[in-house]
DNA sequence: ATAACGTTAGAAAACGTTTTCTCACACTCA
DNA sequence: TGAGTGTGAGAAAACGTTTTCTAACGTTAT
């Protein structure tokens, strides 16, 4: 039923080896080449990728393991990476862990079994404790989240600086009781929290940072609790776009409105943010560039397996909305190596 | 370097066939089974999926080809499908066509080369004209968009009825000059437009339906033009969530505000929609159920290759927000076979 | 003119599994 | 007791490619 390379060879009256050579673009007699191409067309031959990968021992496949595909940040980065990959003739296996360490481990195992060329990975914090346990066996580039001491290439946002910029922005707008909500499942939340706290201290603000759980209802409870305390904050910073939504929901539950009752700012520039509550001030991440950089680093790593690990830190861009804050900006650019 | 099944066999002092049998859970002597398992662990053996797929001739892989991964509707459906698939031990190859017929054809070709078990597919309209050219060679289930006369299984929203419900909703709120914006790249936009026009006619409204191009700037121009005409509509219906955003952007450009200056409604219940302009009324699609149904139909099709094609039409749910419209609802349920 | 070399294409091996085939063994039943 | 039957494990074939190996040929240089 299925037509294989031998069938093509028979029709073209050449050997299977020659067909293979034509298809992989190596030099063959033009006359033969023509016969082969004609035979391919007439038979409707399609190479069997499994067989090809088995024999050639390279899969031209990269794994992309993200923490939450519903987060527009990750879909944007995924799209960028996929486009770059297919342009180079590589396939992408996209995996979504839902921040679940078990799924994460499972997908890593799958990457092994697929014998992927390399992996781009946004890990949750389970590996921080047992970083040495993560012996990839293939090149890995971390995105969005770092793993201290894992010795892996990574491309990150300059989280601390950006969080500080957000605090400064709110401070400049006159807010003094700023609270921050940060995830603890990834290094990203932690770094942003550190930047937030340092900036607040430097400005002499008594800012409170709170840990956000990943589950939505629990997260909402946390926000509600924070806002129901004795002195309500006059500004809120959320660790990412998804949490910003949770905050909005909690505010609504309390009958509060942003930015009238409380200022709101955060990370990730989702496309709806300009339309909500007079516009939300956020740190926009250079998603396209994050994808491009990760891909480049992965390919570099394939060429130079033993080069020292690199860490690329990209700047974000403050998008000031709502009140009359300063219209600050900075083109995304590497600031470290 | 790499450890194969033969190495495991040698360590366990059994034949490779036995190792294979243990790993695929067939009955073997318990003592041997134990030796094999121990050997697998001690050697760190990982099966080579390419080899396995080549020999066994089934890939346990389904392709999922969507039109726009940035559209939350598709990410939600993808997530549902992926969860179901992995629960059944199947892999998913996720492809994003960006509504580009060339990409679409390329990915379909890839599906062939991967020898996928089946494909779940949201096609753009290129196939309508040349439906017979789409000879899959594997089971295909269409989602979100239908291909008349292609004889394929499909699961769709009841687009016409839902569009009509939206019109009725706006009419009940007192709006009389309703305009609709519909994409022409897929059957979905067309069906919604038909439902919109029929409902308007039935209500005696002089509703105008306009075609939205896919490119964002062009789309925005269309909306701006529509709103700058001699008599401005007092309500706008958008064909999906992405277009709703385009509309919001165009409104802003004209200095108009929803729902004060104009009412806004559409399809897809994205998570931010309750927070924008007092809340947008939308038709919520049963994304989870769409994914589940598509998966079920695909598996059914594998069991019964020659059964007649089925078309499942699911109801959406009107989520009434903003003004004081009726709080209508209907649980998603099949209404057709 | 002949040896040495480079190029080209076919023959055959190899990739790492699963599956078929074969055989040995134990058990049942007449 | 002996033939028939069922079970379980190893040997070997098979999956569809790519790659190595080998041989033939044409070209150049001596």
Report on the structure:
The structure is a homodimer of 337-residue chains. With 337 residues, the first copy, chain A, is an alpha/beta fold. Chain A is built from twelve helices and twelve strands. In chain A, the strands form two sheets. The first copy, chain A, has a six-stranded parallel sheet, with helices on both faces. The first copy, chain A, has a six-stranded mixed sheet with strand order 7-6-8-9-10-12, with helices on both faces. In chain A, strand 8, helix 11 and strand 9 form a beta-alpha-beta unit. In chain A, helix 1 crosses helix 2 and helix 10 packs across helix 11. Chain A is elongated, with a radius of gyration of 25 Å. The N and C termini of chain A lie far apart (55 Å). At the A-B interface, helix 4, helix 5, strand 2, helix 6 and helix 11 of A face helix 4, helix 5, strand 2, helix 6 and helix 11 of B. The first copy, chain A, binds a DNA duplex (30 and 30 nucleotides) through helix 2 and helix 4.
SSE diagram, text form:
The structure is a homodimer of 337-residue chains.
Chain A lengths: L4 H8 L3 H8 L6 H14 L5 H8 L4 E6 L5 H16 L3 E6 L4 H14 L3 E4 L4 H4 L10 E4 L9 E5 L1 H14 L5 E6 L3 H16 L5 E5 L3 H12 L7 E4 L2 H14 L8 E5 L13 E4 L2 H17 L7 E4 L2 E3 L18
Parallel strand pairs in A: 1-2, 1-3, 3-4, 4-5, 5-11, 6-7, 6-8, 8-9, 9-10
Antiparallel strand pairs in A: 10-12
Helix pairs in contact in A: 1-2, 1-3, 2-3, 5-12, 8-9, 10-11
The first copy, chain A, binds a DNA duplex (30 and 30 nucleotides) through helix 2 and helix 4.
């Amino acid at each position: 039923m299925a037509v294989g390379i031998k069938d093509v060879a028979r029709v073209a009256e050449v050997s299977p080896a020659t067909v293979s050579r034509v298809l992989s673009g190596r030099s063959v007699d033009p006359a033969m080449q023509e016969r082969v191409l004609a035979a391919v067309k007439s038979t409707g031959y399609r190479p069997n990728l499994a067989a090809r990968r088995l024999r050639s021992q390279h899969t031209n496949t990269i794994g992309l393991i993200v923490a939450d595909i519903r987060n527009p940040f990750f879909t944007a980065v995924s799209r960028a990476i996929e486009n770059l990959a297919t342009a180079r003739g590589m396939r992408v296996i996209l995996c979504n862990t839902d921040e679940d360490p078990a799924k994460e481990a499972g997908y890593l195992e799958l990457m092994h079994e697929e014998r992927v060329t390399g992996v781009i990975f946004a890990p949750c914090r389970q590996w921080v404790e047992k970083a040495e346990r993560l012996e990839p066996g293939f090149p890995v580039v971390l995105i969005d989240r770092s793993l201290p001491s894992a010795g892996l290439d990574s491309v990150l946002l300059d989280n601390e600086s950006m969080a500080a910029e957000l605090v400064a922005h709110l401070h400049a707008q006159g807010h003094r009781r700023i609270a921050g909500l940060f995830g603890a499942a990834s290094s990203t939340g932690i770094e942003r929290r550190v930047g937030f706290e340092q900036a607040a201290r430097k400005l002499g603000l008594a800012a409170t940072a709170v840990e956000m759980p990943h589950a939505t209802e629990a997260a909402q409870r946390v926000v509600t609790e924070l806002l129901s305390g004795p002195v309500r904050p006059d500004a809120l910073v959320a660790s990412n776009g998804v949490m910003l939504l949770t905050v909005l929901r909690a505010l609504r539950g309390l009958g509060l409105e942003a930015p009238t009752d409380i200022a709101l700012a955060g990370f990730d520039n989702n496309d709806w943010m300009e339309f909500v509550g007079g516009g939300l001030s956020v740190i926009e991440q250079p998603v396209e560039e994050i994808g491009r950089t990760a891909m480049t680093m992965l390919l570099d790593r394939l060429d130079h397996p033993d080069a020292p690990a690199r860490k690329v830190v990209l700047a974000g861009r403050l998008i000031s909305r709502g009140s009359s804050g300063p219209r600050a900006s900075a083109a995304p650019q590497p600031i470290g190596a």
